[in-house]
Amino acid sequence: MDNNKHRYCVIMCGGIGSRFWPYSRTDKPKQFIDFFGTGRSLLQMSYERLLPIVPKENILVMTNARYADKVREQLPDISPDRILLEPDRRNTAPCIAWAAYHLAAIDPQASMIVTPSDHLITRESVFEQCVLRGFDFVENNDALLTLGIHPTRPETGYGYIQIGRELEPGLLKVKTFTEKPDLELAKVFLESGEFFWNAGIFLWRAEVIKKAFHRYLPDLASEFDLGESVFGTPAETEFIQTHFPSCPSISIDFGVMEKADNVYVECVDFGWSDLGTWTSLYDNSPKTADSNVTQKCRVMTYGSSGNIFMTPEDKLVVVSGLQNYIVADAGDVLLICPRSEEQRIKNMVIDVEQRFDDRYL
Amino acid sequence: MDNNKHRYCVIMCGGIGSRFWPYSRTDKPKQFIDFFGTGRSLLQMSYERLLPIVPKENILVMTNARYADKVREQLPDISPDRILLEPDRRNTAPCIAWAAYHLAAIDPQASMIVTPSDHLITRESVFEQCVLRGFDFVENNDALLTLGIHPTRPETGYGYIQIGRELEPGLLKVKTFTEKPDLELAKVFLESGEFFWNAGIFLWRAEVIKKAFHRYLPDLASEFDLGESVFGTPAETEFIQTHFPSCPSISIDFGVMEKADNVYVECVDFGWSDLGTWTSLYDNSPKTADSNVTQKCRVMTYGSSGNIFMTPEDKLVVVSGLQNYIVADAGDVLLICPRSEEQRIKNMVIDVEQRFDDRYL
After folding, report:
1. What is the nearest CA distance from A304 to chain B, expressed in angstroms?
2. Which residues does chain A have within 8 Å of residue B317's beta carbon, measured at their own beta carbons?
3. Residue A171: enclosing H or E segment and its boundaries?
4. How far, in Å, CA of A49 to CA of A117, rounded?
5. What is the ipTM for the molecules in this complex?
6. Which chain B residues are within 8 Å of A318, Cβ to Cβ?
7. Per-residue pLDDT tens digits for A183-201
8. Which pTM value belongs to this model?
9. Which among A41, A83, A37, A44 has a CA at the least distance from the CA of A64?
10. Which one of A318, A340, A341, A353 would you mutate to disrupt binding with B, by most B Cβ within 10 Å of its Cβ?
11. Could you give the CA distance from residue A285 to residue A294 in angstroms, rounded to a whole number?
C-alpha cells in the first residue's frame, strides 16, 4: 500500500439536502441520516467505502462549520485536522479549490478523488477498482477525470456526459456536459449509448486542478493564491475565515469541467444513485410484500402499497388505503405527500418558511 | 334555587373510548381529551353544562379507580367524596345502581340525572330547560325517564326509542327500544316520526330506580342491599371494593329500560352527538375552506379535503393530495385511515395488541 501514500479522498459534506425535508433538516442534512435503517448514515457509508482505497489519514472531509460536531460524532476516527470547515456555503468550486490548495501544500505529489457524501453505491468492490484505475490514470496524465455512470433508464433528474474519443476501453475524452434533459431527450441519450450520468465524482492531481482554476476561474484562484504560504499551517483556518466568504458561489461543473479541454470520463457501473429524491430512495430500498418501503419503521399497513415511510424508530404507524405516498414523520413535522408530487416538496418548504420562519426547517 | 337541593347529577366517566384510538388510550380515554381544541375536555364540558342545574356539591362523578387522578386534575372543584371510584369495569347498570344506593342513603328524596361524560351537546340552554322539565316530571311520577333526541338523519350508529302514548307535548310513554338499525330501517324510522335517538341520558328518583333494580336485576340489587347500612358512610369504599366486582356486567338499557313498564321519554333537540366515531367528530367540528377539520393543529394542506386531523399542538403537518382521511398522530402512534373505513379501526387495535401487547393501547 506504499504506492497510495500520495492519494487522497475528499468527501464533500456541506450540503443541506432540502429535497428530503422534513427528514433532512438544516441541522441534520441528508448525509448525516441513516437512510436505509442500517445503523450507518450516508456519510459513514461514504467514508467506509474509501477506507480500502487510501490510508485513513489521507481522507479529508469538507463541511460547513455548523456541521463540525456532526462529522466528528459520526466519524470519530478522523483526526480533527482532516476536517476542513467552510465558514460559508459557496457551492462546489471553492470547496474543491480549498481542498486542492490544502493538499498541494502538504503533499506536492497529491492526487485526489472528490466525492459527495450523500450518494448510494451498492457495488463497493467495483467502485474500489474503478477508483484505483482512475488514480492510475490521473497520476500519469494531466487530466481532469470524472466518473460517468452507465445509464439504465431515461432519467430526467441527472446531468449527462457525452463521450468522445476513446483512449482505452472505458476511458474516453469528454465531448460535452449536458444539463438535465427532458424525457424525450433522455430517451435519445439512453439509446445512443454515447451518454453517461454525471455522478459528480472527480479525480485529478492537486496541481492539475489548481492549474485549471487559474485558467477557468481566475478570480477564485487569486483568492486562494493569497494564502499560498498558509495552507497546511495553523494560519490556514484564519485565512479561510477571511477569504472563503469572498469566493464566488459556483459549481465545479459549470466553472471548470464544462470549459476545460483536458476532461476525461471513466465509464463505470457500480450501482450508483444520487438519492436525490424520495422516489430514488424508494427505488433503492428493499420492499415489503405489499411494495411498501418501511425501513426499520414499525408500520402496519392495510390495503396500502407503493408507499415509503420514514418515521421515528419506536413510533407505530398504522395505515389503511394509501397508495404511493411519502409518509415522513420527523418528530415535529409530519409530511404526507404522493410520491408523484415530490417535486412540489421544495415549494412546500418555502411556504413553511414563510409561515413559521426557520422553526421547522 | 332551594327547590333543587334534592336534585343530583351523576356523570358516568369510566369508559375507555377505544374507537378513537390512537388518540384515546387506556390511560387517557376520550372523555379526558380536548376534542375540539377549545381547552376543555369532554368531561369538563359535561360538568360545566350541569353547573346551572344543580348545586355544585350535588354533582357526582362515577369513574374507574385508574382514572381518579385524571378526574381530580380536570375537575379540581369537585370534592373528593363526590368522586366514586369503581374498582372494576362493569358496564352501566352496576355503576348506576351504586349511584342510586349512595344518593338514596344520603338523601332519601334524591332525584337524579345520569349522563355520559363523553358526548357533545351544543345548545346548552335548551339542554338545561329539558333537564329541569325532566326533574319536575320524575319528582311527580314513579317514572324512569330517558331523553330521546329528534333524529336528523338515518343514523345507523345509534339505538332508537319508539314513542307510545303522549302524556303531554314532548313527554311520552316508551313503546320499544331498538338496537342499531341498518340503513333501510333507519330511513323508515326517520320518516315515521315515531323514533328518537337513545342518548343514554336518564332521570328518575333514586328510590324508583332502586325498585326497578329489585324487580329486573334482582341479583344486582341483592349485592347492593348487603351494604344498605354503609352507603354514605366511610365504610362504603371498602364495601364497594369487595362487592362491586361481583356485580354482573350489564347495561342499564338491556337490564332495566327495555324491561320496565314505567319508562317514559322526553323528546328533545339540543344539538346532541355521542361523538362515537371520527365521522361524528368531523361532522360536529368547524371546517376550513377546504372542508378539512384541523382543530388547533398546525396543518398545511395542498389539494386535500374532507380530512380530519388530530395531532400534537406544536406539530406541523403538511399534507398533499389526501381526501377524506383520518390523520391522528398521538405521539407514539400515527394512524392514517380513510374516514369511510373507520369501523375497521377497532380491528386494527386488536392487531396492534396481538403484535405489541398493550404498549400502544
Report:
1. 10
2. 333-336
3. strand A171-178
4. 11
5. 0.78
6. 22, 333-337, 348, 352
7. 999 999 999 999 999 999 9
8. 0.79
9. A83
10. A318
11. 9
